[in-house]
Design brief:
- This protein is mainly α and about 200 residues long.
- It folds into 2 domains: about 40 residues, Arc Repressor Mutant, subunit A, CATH 1.10.10.60; about 130 residues, Tetracycline Repressor, domain 2 (Orthogonal Bundle), CATH 1.10.357.10.
- It is about 65% helix and about 0% strand.
- The longest helix is centred in the C-terminal third of the chain and has 23 residues.
- The chain is flat and about 55 Å long.
Length: about 200
């Protein structure tokens, strides 16, 4: 098949993201993206060298829309961090299969680095320095990505939670009881209550 004459980076990334959204991470390959674009797999290699470059392109495209502007300076630092977290959560929540890729490519993605730079600015303004700032940023990144993966890729509130609540109480009494309670906890409450606990813990 002839290659498209106007295959831009955005068009390539958009096609790859469509495959990822539809088929998940397991369905993403050079072949499936080429098929989505109506071109041969070999022709696709004229635009990206390998899957790693393709993944980074997806991350940049998907997260490039995040507002990384600094939140209002008159707000408390925890609220400013929460604003940044909400922006990241909303964007990743629209494309859950991008979450593992954003973690894998976090050191090379300009979009991820810009978000982190803004968060570091907020933390610095709140008095976080040195190793304490390192721990704070990594804790935030770990929490957001972990919570989002549980929410979208391994839901605690769906069939998994129901299965755990049905476990034999003599073997897993606390797991079964906790899972029953979990069915009444809304996703947003679970996420942001957890974030609040983390932020307060960082300030000790």
């Amino acid at each position: 098949m002839p290659r498209p004459r106007s295959l831009t980076s955005d068009r390539l990334a958009s096609a790859a993201l469509a495959v990822l959204d539809r088929d998940g991470l397991a369905g993403l390959s050079m072949r499936t993206v080429a098929k989505e674009l109506g071109m041969s797999t070999m022709a696709l290699y004229r635009y990206v060298a390998d899957r790693e470059e393709l993944e980074l392109l997806i991350v940049e495209f998907a997260l490039g829309t995040i507002d990384t502007g600094t939140p209002p300076a008159d707000l408390p630092w925890r609220e400013r961090v929460e604003i940044m977290v909400r922006r990241l959560r909303d964007t990743l929540g629209a494309h859950p299969s991008v979450i593992p890729l954003s973690v894998a490519h976090r050191h090379h993605s300009r979009a991820v680095l810009r978000w982190s730079e803004t968060v570091l600015g907020v933390l610095t303004g709140a008095g976080f320095e040195g190793e304490r700032r390192v721990v704070a940023l990594r804790a935030l990144v770990a929490y957001v990505n972990g919570a989002l993966q549980l929410e979208h890729l391994g839901s605690l509130s769906g069939t998994g939670t129901q299965a755990i609540s049905a476990l034999a109480p003599e073997e897993f009494p606390l797991m079964a009881e906790t899972a029953r309670h979990a069915q009444g906890v809304e996703v947003d409450r679970e996420f942001f209550d957890g974030l609040t606990a983390l932020l307060h813990g960082l300030d000790t």
